[in-house]
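Example protein was shown:

_____
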Amino acid sequence: MGAVKLTKNDLKKQKDQLRQFERYLPTLQLKKQQLQMVIMHALSELDSTEKELSAMVEGLDDWVAVFAENTRFAKEKKIERLVVPDKIVCVRENIAGVSVPVFRELTFRPIEYDVEDYPLWVDEAVVRLREIARCSALAETLKRKLGLLNRELSTTSQRVNLFEKVRIPATKENIRRIEIYLGDQQTSAVVRGKIAKKKRQGANV
């Protein structure tokens, strides 16, 4: 903000700025509230997803015995080679002016294998490993989403503080100073006018 001139033009400019700031502040405050709500929801969703992922991984403990057979497969036929994530498919969603990713699906590279080369449990193992990979991809997408939202919340909070604690108080103080100065100038002009009038009246006696 530049230096304030103690003039009627600057008084009008300061009042116009104050109206603009006071109109803009509620919009920023609303955006801050929206971001906080969305972040809370995303945190809850991430917590739920991570618990689900943890449960899936722990569920593999029951498979320890059968997974041990994996070590006997040839290198090119290891189970992990049957589950190869390709790409995370997301759409973009606008939340309070922020473009964030929303998880849709995790695609996998099409890999064919001869069922005669594997025991029966491999089919279900592939399904489980894919579910774990999808859940992990969802968690990573939610973390990216939260990162973007938290960054925007930080910026918005700084702007709210700037208007609430700096811009609006400073503008109000500028208006007060200009009005006091102009009031003093007006009073001085009236006093000078009365003195001049008395002098004229005295000169005419």
User: Anything to note?
Assistant: The radius of gyration is 35 Å. Residues 8-183 form a domain with the Helix Hairpins fold (CATH 1.10.287.3240). The longest strand covers residues 85-95.
